[in-house]
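Researcher: Structure prediction, please.
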Amino acid sequence: MTQKTRIIVISGPTGIGKTELSISLAEVFGGEIVGADSMQIYRHMDIGTAKPGPDERGRVPHHLIDAADPDEAYDAARYMREARAAVDDIKSRGRLPVVVGGTGFYIKALLYGLFDAKPTDVQVRNRLWQEARALGGGAMHERLAACDPETARRIHPNDTYRVIRALEVFELTGSPVSAFRAAHRFSDAPYCPLKFALCMDRGKLYRRIDARADQMIEQGIVEEVRWLLQMGYDKNARAMQALGYRHILGYLEGETDWQTAVETLKRDTRRYAKRQLTWFRKDMETIWVRPDQQAEITERIRAFLFD
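Model: Predicted structure follows.
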């Protein structure tokens, strides 16, 4: 049997310090980083996504960053294909793949594949989107909760795209997405991963998140959003509704005042971090470490790779 490719995974909530730690580790072990962030894949969206800068990317090669335009369709299936291609390419050159990011579903797709989501129907999907625009995303999430409560618990009410996809599958098949997921059980596992998740005192993490929001403002996230609009990207595009961008759009559109926009941005980011922690805690194979435990992490990786 061919030995599976060994890879390192560094995950954890937003703002905790994954970027610097992963770059340092990649430098030690001759690695290259494969991004696992559903927003850093978009070009031109740098400040609001806390994307690694030119200096950081100059230290270690990065993949799956700046992989798509903000109005381009990008989902977990495409991520899985492109990330696996990147991992295999890195391995073929004798380098170590280091997967880094906070999008748990992307990481799971890369490591274990995706279940068969069944056929799509454009007419059904368009009708559901029309209903979402008329009734609101919250109403659609409530509808999903009625027919597939397990999937509804996994999807945030603001993630209208995934809510509608789950409703589409239910209408077309009569079965909930959760049933297909249970049948599949993510059995496609081509790699042997060593998985770390970063953690720290919750209060300290929240203070870091608030400070990073202030830093994004100082770096020019308002100007970045204005520039994206000037480039012609639709304010309703999925990427533009992400954390940070939708808050600044609300301010620029006059829907909220500046103080409320900033406070809401910080609050929603803290809530997102909490959901990320909940996701990663479900994985019993994950090793929880602090960002300042680089020496211990290094020894664990060394044993994993060479023992």
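Model: The first helix runs from residue 18 to 29.
Researcher: Thanks, that helps.
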